[in-house]
From TrEMBL:
This is DUF1211 domain-containing protein. The keyword Plastid does not apply. It catalyses: K(+)(in) = K(+)(out). It comes from Duganella rivi. One of its GO terms (cellular component) is membrane. Keywords: Ion channel, Ion transport, Membrane, Potassium, Potassium channel, Potassium transport, Transmembrane, Transmembrane helix, Transport. Belongs to the TMEM175 family. Pfam families: TMEM175. It is found in: Membrane. It is a multi-pass membrane protein.
Length: 188
């Protein structure tokens, strides 16, 4: 089974996710700088979510570029990832509207955790049919550390919400650059 449709569909869904997020940004009611003040939590949560969706899009691109074969299981694993990514606009809006409150931030972390888990499943499905990819990725220590940090961030969000948010920012910083393990082996 070819990978072209998988990549095109995923790119389309990710583009829609970003579009939904930006459409949730509301224009301020005033025309001065003070009118922006109440919108900073919404904008800050949007920026972090945009970065996360960009990270997933970038790494997904590298991942799919590296494979030669997909299967029905890969398609389902990819849909599982897209499902969790599609919830990012919802939790982003919730976090922004409620100014980084504990429950919305914990839910945000849960969606990030599940997105990470779904990405890990997609990688495992792809590795089972693409030995070179498996060799390139190795043990995926960075992915496992990220999942642990998300769990820490969820717990921290319940106690000190901004600390939970800081943990989510830390994971984004860790992943900001594309996965060099794939990029170094597959040049195009």
């Amino acid at each position: 089974m070819g990978k072209g449709r998988l990549e095109a569909f995923s790119d389309g869904v990710i583009a829609i996710i970003i579009t939904i997020m930006v459409l949730e940004l509301k224009v301020p009611h005033g025309a001065d700088w003070d009118a922006l003040q109440p919108l900073w939590p919404v904008f800050l949560s949007y920026v972090l979510s945009f970065i996360y969706v960009g990270i997933y899009w970038n790494n997904h691109h590298h991942l799919i570029h590296a494979v030669t074969k997909t299967t029905g299981g890969v398609l389902w694993a990819n849909l599982h990832l897209l499902f969790w990514l599609s919830l990012i606009p919802f939790v982003t809006g919730w976090v922004g509207e409620h100014h980084f409150s504990a429950v919305p931030l914990a839910a945000y972390g849960f969606v990030l955790f599940m997105s990470s888990f779904a990405y890990l499943l997609l990688v495992r499905c792809l590795e089972s049919h693409n030995e070179a990819l498996k060799d390139a990725l190795g043990s995926d220590r960075k992915g496992k550390i990220s999942m642990l940090l998300y769990a820490v961030g969820i717990g921290a969000a319940c106690i000190t919400p901004l600390l939970g948010f800081a943990v989510y920012v830390l994971v984004a910083i860790i992943w900001f650059l594309p996965d060099r393990r794939i990029e170094s082996r597959y040049k195009s």
